[in-house]
Amino acid sequence: MRPYHQIPIFECGEPLIAIPLELFAVESPHPYEKLGAPYGDRSPYYLRQSVIENLIQAQNYLDVLHPNWRIQIFDAYRPIAVQQFMVDYSFAQAVHDRGLAEVELSPNQRQEIWEAVYAIWAVPSLDEKTPPPHSTGAAVDVTLVDDSGEIVNMGSPIDEMSGRSHPDYYANSDRPETQNYHAHRQLLQDVMLKAGFQRNPREWWHFSVGDQMWAWLNNQANRANPVTARYGRLA
Ligand SMILES: C[C@@H](N)C(=O)N[C@H](C)C(=O)O
Ligand SMILES: [Zn+2]
């Protein structure tokens, strides 16, 4: 359980619809489809209707600050089966990166690796009270592309299992290059928050609106007017 799982969900029934990809930049091929994630007849490029409206607003704010820059969509809707696939894939990858073999892991090694995986991935829970954020169609992983079509350097790749994923990792840096990474993360956060999103406190790229994490973050900032979640897990 994460703290945001305490937030009640009152599903509003808004449809999951296709993102108008022509308004954004898009990571292609899709990073998890490329790995063989089991989408079936679903597409990762879908979100709830008003979440798409918020994302278009964020792109409009970016247009004012940086004409011809684009929000790049890395991932959006994620069925539970895909969440499970990515959690298992990330565990196997972390074992490999440590030069270990899964069958030979000690209980402590296994626990350390699972903790690293679940530091950035949500549990693929089937409980309707604790849905993974992306399975609600209200969460999106994004970065920025500049006016020459280059992906803006944020100082770490999306989905890296390390401290560099923390949004403020470069906040107190005294090197111009790493100060730039922080400025880029701030720019992304500014346009997304202005459009109504909240950012995952553990990941510079993950934003949502209307889900449990969004409600919990709103309530942390404004305890006088608590909100609930309007998007639960999609079938
Ligand atoms: C790991 C990243 N892509 C992500 O989406 N993390 C959140 C917490 C999730 O799994 O919902
Ligand atoms: Zn995410």
From TrEMBL:
GO terms for molecular function: D-Ala-D-Ala dipeptidase activity; metallopeptidase activity; zinc ion binding. Its EC number is 3.4.13.22. It is an enzyme of class 3 (hydrolase). Gene3D superfamilies: 3.30.1380.10. Pfam families: Peptidase_M15. Binds 1 zinc ion per subunit. InterPro entries: A_A_dipeptidase, Zn_M74/Hedgehog-like. The active site is at E203. Keywords: Cell wall biogenesis/degradation, Dipeptidase, Hydrolase, Metal-binding, Metalloprotease, Protease, Zinc. Belongs to the peptidase M15D family. Catalyzes hydrolysis of the D-alanyl-D-alanine dipeptide. This is D-alanyl-D-alanine dipeptidase. The lineage of its organism: Bacteria, Bacillati, Cyanobacteriota, Cyanophyceae, Nostocales.
